[in-house]
Amino acid sequence: MLELKNVSKKYKNNEVLNNINLAINNGEIVSLLGPSGCGKTTLLNMILGLTEVSAGEIIYNNEVIQNKPMHKRDFNIVFQDYCLFPHLNAYENIIYGLKNLKKNPYDKKVTDLIELLELRPHLYKKIHELSGGQKQRVSIARTIAMEPKILLMDEPLSALDGVIKESIKDMIQKIAKTLNLTTIIVTHDPEEALTMADKVVVIENGKVAQFGTPDNIINEPKNKFVEQFILNQLKVKRNHIYQLFGASYGA
């Protein structure tokens, strides 16, 4: 279990996160949802160990880890811009980190991961030859090949569109559930959060506005912010789809 107890983050006089309390069970998919600037990426980076905690405790499996170096936490992250090495092919990117861990790149876990993410036909393509969805799958494979205890994802779908986005969303869920891998996903999109996650953390101005299942969030919003943020965002998306549909058909 990952626990955050009274976690806060300040930059000089600017309080970015205030008194965050969460308990995330092993194997759960949890979305950190909120508008830009609410503190969700800072929270992700504190869990990863990239950003220091100003106050409070981060506890993983009963061990206090907020002062533990990032490389000793055994967590790993997938970034929204893929961060792949352009001079290497897809397979070389996937196994890149294994040599440092002295792990066998031909291990069955790696080959099973490649099959699970449907990357076999693309292994020897250069990065510029891959589509956005294929690049994101390679990025996910590279991260999970390192066998992280927790998988962190920062806006993993933001650069993708339509059917590709839905495909990657399904694959993230499939990977997390197949491997029983605790997964924490930052997103500003309520639809992504509510359809991908077992639980959703709605963040408002550095505080947890609500933490619950998608059903709780939709049917029992704790305050006006939760209700309005989700409804307004879904309305914006719906209007955008209608505009595209109308443009396509000359409406």
UniProtKB/TrEMBL annotation:
Q: Which GO terms describe its cellular component?
A: membrane
**Pfam families per UniProt:** ABC_tran (PF00005)
PROSITE patterns, per database record: ABC_TRANSPORTER_1, ABC_TRANSPORTER_2
Q: Which UniProt keywords apply?
A: ATP-binding, Cell membrane, Ion transport, Iron, Iron transport, Membrane, Nucleotide-binding, Transport
- GO MF, one annotated term: ATP binding
* Taxonomic superkingdom: Bacteria
Q: Does the keyword Methyltransferase apply?
A: no
EC number(s) from the headed UniProt entry? 7.6.2.9
From the UniProt record, list the reaction(s) this protein catalyses: a quaternary ammonium(out) + ATP + H2O = a quaternary ammonium(in) + ADP + phosphate + H(+)
Class of the enzyme per the UniProt entry, highest EC level: translocase
ABC transporter domain mapped to chain residues? 2-230
> Is the keyword Membrane assigned to this protein?
yes
User: How does this protein assemble?
Assistant: The complex is composed of two ATP-binding proteins (OpuCA), two transmembrane proteins (OpuCB and OpuCD) and a solute-binding protein (OpuCC).
Would you tell me the protein name for this molecule?
Answer: Carnitine transport ATP-binding protein OpuCA
